[in-house]
Design brief:
Number of strands: 0
Distance between the termini: 33 Å
Strand content: under 5%
Helix content: over 70%
Largest sheet: none
Order of helices and strands: HHHHHHHHHH
Structural class: mainly alpha
Number of helices: 10
Length: 214
């Protein structure tokens, strides 16, 4: 299977494509993301960010007054550009396949997303923490995610429901069930030092039984 674009790669691509963000600011934001992921927000200093970015510490403060503003500068493009881009890639590569059974669909989605969680665990830790405490980020995430689900996942669910492979629930309810399981596993991966891909068989079986037609 083709390797997913990592969160870091997608972030750098968005920064490079954004003509409103000067090169030094791009370096500062990329360094901030990497250090926040590696050692945590509280343990990262602006001096470390400046050194990582290859700029003077005064350059950091020229645009951002403190670390909170830096974090906001990192998260803003995540919600509006980076995550939607990654979700669209996932939808085109995995969701839109011509699945014949719910097992095929669930297995492909779960295995792909667990591999993504494993690859991007450090950065996801930062995002999950912020999304869990900030209503504005949750709202942006849902707003950007909903159209992609409707355009890509819902037609697959409708087809499988029509063939008797899925329980006849609203598409939004089925999506909520599946996404909820994957989000729970993301949180577990943040809290426990274990290989999340080992959980794939259990998650697949649980979701498959839960979505089986009556």
């Amino acid at each position: 299977m083709e390797k997913d674009t990592s969160i870091s790669e997608a972030f750098q691509a968005v920064m490079a494509a954004n003509g409103d963000i000067p090169p030094k600011q791009q370096q500062v934001l990329a360094a901030s993301l990497e250090l926040f992921a590696q050692q945590g927000f509280d343990s990262t200093t602006t001096k470390q960010i400046a050194e990582k970015a290859g700029v003077a510490e005064g350059t950091v403060y020229r645009r951002y007054k403190n670390k909170d503003e830096l974090l906001a500068g990192v998260l803003a493009p995540f919600m509006t550009q980076v995550l939607p881009s990654l979700i669209k890639e996932f939808a085109q590569k995995v969701v839109a396949r011509p699945y014949l059974t719910r097992h095929e669909m669930i297995s492909a989605i779960v295995e792909d997303r667990l591999a993504f969680i494993k690859e991007n665990g450090a950065i996801l830790r930062v995002l999950i923490r912020e999304i869990s405490v900030r209503n504005d980020l949750r709202s942006q995430f849902i707003t950007n995610m909903a159209p992609l689900l409707q355009d890509n996942l819902f037609p697959v669910l409708d087809r499988l429901k029509a063939s008797g492979e899925l329980v006849d629930w609203p598409d939004s309810r089925i999506a909520q069930f599946m996404i909820g399981m994957m989000f729970t596993e993301s949180v577990r991966a943040v809290l426990l030092p274990e290989d999340v891909t080992h959980a794939a068989p259990v998650i697949i079986e649980f979701i498959e039984k839960g979505l089986a037609p009556k």
